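User: quick one, sequence for these tokens?
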């Protein structure tokens, strides 16, 4: 075996000259090689054999880094790979013969440079260089000796005799110089020979180590061959069973995967059927939408007509409500006027009763006076006629008073009857109002019952929707699980790409549907905005009307307060007049009492004074004078009574006029009430119809909102499906890229391992052949 040339990092002090190849023996000149061919060639052959043995021993098995075995791989063909190369650092001593141990193992095995490089080439080159130096010096010495012999031979004998003395001196000098040169050569040769001996002994120790390593490698080779045989036997015996078991396991897995794939295909067919059904439903919805869009002009005209009718109805409703409020206010005013009239009538009745009582008292007092005057008439016969005429007049007045009293009682009875009639009408109105309230409550109860039924239906619909959403979520979960399982199967990547194209087409169709739904939603938003605008317009109008109504109410309240103040002033003035009349009557009664006392005194005086006639005549004159005065006073009293009667008649006439006015107003209010009730009934019917229409519109709005929510949910679901599909696509692409990268890496590893295996086989075959040759 010969090592391949290569370069090694030499330590300082042991570097070879530039251009010297490994294991390339430098050849000298022609005469040097020819002078001493034996010694150099022998040393060279010995060193080359030692190097061959060393290189064979250096081929080991195990893991070793590339930095340590780089040069060994260059020098030796048999070398282990980087992953399986190991260097076994064994002991420097071997089990050779005892003699060799005594001779060689006193020296170190290698130099420093050889230990660092793990090859003996530097030491060998050093020995060869020393040997060449020794050869060159020996050749120089021989040349000098030959020259000297030639000179000695060429010189004549005559000259020898003549120059004997001179030659002896020269010879002595030359011998001295030669002795000195020989000593120097001896020293140099001794040093060179000691170094060569040292190096040869170290190489001998390396040779012994190489022999020991060879033995170990052979034993290791046997072990490796045994292991290879055992592994081949195991491969022949147990590998088929293991392969069969794995084949069966893989078959089971493949069968399960096929079953899962068939199940998934069935589920996909079911989902495709559902998809076709949904597409049919969408087509129907699209046809309905197109139909509605084709007839949108008619619907807009209808909606406008309905809006106009609603506006007219709202205007009529507001007018009716204003009329109703006005009539209600008038009714309240009439009720207040009727209450005030009844109160005034009662007060007037009480006043008349008191006047009648006062008149009766006055009549009684007058009767007593008449009795007394009749007693006095016996004494005053001349004055009886006057008293009779006065009595007759007073009786006529009393009869007139009684007639007036009867007429006032009749009027009071008629007024009480009218009040009773008004109460009856008021009770009827209250009953009707309660009846209408009961009807309203019944309608409200029906509405709430219908609302409850609708709520129950809506709850059922929401439950169905929740069940459908749960089923859809389960289906989505199963789809995700299917997708995750499909991702694990690498054989169906092409099918996933085809599905990707189909899903992209579906996504485009869904995007088209989304755009159509967005257009329809925009149209619905516009309609809702128009409806909201109409609602706000009507609301503003209603607010304006309410403000106007509030202003009218405020005006009516101001007028009512003004009229109430006027009525209260008039009532206060009447009360003051009554108080004044009462005070006049009290003064009259006091004067009458005084007169009666005076009459009694005069009667007593007349009874006592009977004797002197003159005194009686004088008294009679006085009495006549007093009587005239009393007559004047009575005439004044009667005038006052007539004035009071006239006032009473005037007040009665005023009260009668007021009663007539109140009766006319009551009749008018009854007619107005009937009209108002009719209008209220019509407005209630209209409100019921409007409420029904409003409920229908609310239902339609709710349905549209539900449709909108359903479309939003569908869009969200489609978005989620699109995102999941895109995520799955990305995952599949990433898995595919990862698998391709792993495949490439595996192929590269397999190729590298094949190359390494082939190189190792070639190297092992070469080493076996070399070993066989050795």
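Assistant:
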């Amino acid at each position: 075996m010969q090592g391949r040339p290569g370069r090694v990092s030499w330590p300082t002090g042991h570097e070879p000259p530039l251009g010297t190849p490994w294991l390339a023996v430098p050849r000298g000149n022609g005469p040097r090689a020819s002078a001493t061919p034996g010694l150099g060639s022998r040393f060279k052959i010995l060193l080359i054999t030692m190097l061959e043995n060393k290189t064979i021993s250096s081929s080991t098995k195990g893991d070793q880094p590339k930095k340590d075995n780089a040069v060994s791989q260059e020098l030796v063909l048999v070398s282990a790979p980087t992953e399986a190369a190991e260097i076994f650092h064994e002991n420097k001593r071997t089990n050779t013969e005892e003699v060799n141990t005594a001779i060689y193992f006193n020296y170190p095995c290698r130099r420093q440079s050889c230990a660092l490089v793990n090859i003996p080439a530097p030491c060998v080159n050093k020995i060869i260089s020393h040997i060449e130096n020794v050869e060159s010096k020996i050749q120089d010495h021989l040349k000098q000796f030959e020259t000297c012999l030639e000179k000695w031979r060429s010189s004549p004998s005559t000259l020898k005799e003549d120059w004997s003395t001179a030659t002896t001196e020269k010879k002595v000098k030359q011998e001295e110089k030669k002795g000195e040169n020989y000593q120097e050569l001896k020293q140099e040769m001794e040093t060179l020979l000691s170094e060569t001996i040292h190096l040869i002994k170290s190489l001998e120790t390396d040779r012994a180590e190489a022999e020991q390593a060879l033995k170990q490698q052979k034993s290791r080779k046997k072990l490796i061959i045994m292991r290879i045989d055992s592994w081949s036997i195991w491969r022949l015996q147990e590998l088929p069973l293991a392969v069969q078991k794995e084949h069966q396991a893989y078959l089971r897995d493949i069968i399960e995967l096929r079953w899962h794939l068939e199940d998934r295909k069935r589920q996909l067919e079911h989902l495709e059927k559902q998809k076709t059904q949904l597409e049919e439903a969408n087509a129907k919805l699209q046809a309905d939408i197109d139909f509605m869009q084709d007839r949108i002009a008619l619907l807009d005209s209808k909606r406008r007509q309905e809006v106009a009718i609603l506006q007219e109805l709202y205007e009529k409703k507001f007018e009716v409500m204003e009329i109703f409020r006005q009539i209600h206010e008038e009714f309240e005013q009439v009720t207040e006027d009727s209450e005030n009239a009844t109160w005034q009538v009662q007060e007037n009745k009480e006043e008349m009763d008191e006047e009648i009582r006062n008149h009766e008292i006055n009549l009684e007092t007058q009767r007593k006076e008449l009795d007394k005057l009749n007693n006095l008439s016996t004494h005053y016969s001349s004055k009886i006629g006057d008293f009779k005429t006065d009595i007759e007049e007073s009786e006529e007045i009393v009869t007139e008073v009684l007639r007036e009293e009867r007429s006032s009682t009749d009027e009071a009875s008629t007024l009480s009857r009218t009040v009773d009639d008004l109460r009856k009408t008021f009770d009827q109105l209250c009953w009707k109002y309660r009846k209408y309230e009961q009807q309203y409550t019944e309608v409200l109860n029906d509405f709430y019952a219908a609302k409850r039924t609708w709520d129950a239906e809506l709850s059922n619909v929401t439950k169905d929707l929740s069940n459908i959403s749960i089923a859809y979520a389960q289906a989505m979960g199963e789809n995700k699980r299917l997708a995750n399982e499909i991702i694990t199967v690498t054989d169906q990547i092409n099918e996933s790409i085809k599905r990707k194209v189909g899903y992209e087409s579906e996504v485009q169709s869904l995007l088209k549907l989304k755009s159509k739904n967005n257009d329809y939603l925009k149209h619905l938003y516009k309609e809702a905005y128009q409806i909201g605008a109409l609602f706000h317009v009507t609301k503003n109008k209603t607010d304006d009307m309410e403000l106007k109504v509030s202003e009218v109410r405020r005006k009516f309240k101001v007028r009512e307060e003004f009229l109430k103040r006027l009525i209260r002033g008039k009532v206060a003035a009447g009360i003051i007049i009554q108080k004044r009349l009462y005070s006049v009557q009290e003064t009259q009664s006091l004067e009458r009492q005084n007169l009666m006392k005076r009459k009694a005194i005069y009667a007593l005086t007349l009874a006592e004074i009977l004797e002197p006639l003159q005194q009686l005549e004088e008294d009679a004159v006085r009495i006549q004078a007093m009587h005239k005065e009393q007559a004047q006073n009575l005439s004044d009293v009667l005038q006052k009574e007539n004035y009071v009667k006239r006032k009473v008649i005037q007040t009665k006439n005023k009260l009668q006029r007021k009663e007539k006015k109140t009766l006319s107003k009551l009749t008018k209010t009854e007619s107005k009430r009937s009209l108002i009730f009719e209008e209220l009934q019509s407005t209630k019917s209209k409100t019921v119809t409007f409420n029904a229409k409003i409920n229908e519109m609310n239902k339609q709005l709710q349905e549209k909102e539900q449709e909108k929510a359903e479309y939003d949910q569908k869009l969200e679901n489609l978005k989620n499906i699109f995102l999941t599909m895109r995520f799955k696509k990305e995952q599949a692409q990433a898995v595919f890229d990862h698998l391709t990268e792993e495949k490439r890496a595996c192929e590269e590893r397999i190729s590298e391992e094949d190359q390494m295996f082939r190189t190792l086989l070639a190297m092992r075959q070469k080493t076996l052949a070399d070993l066989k040759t050795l």
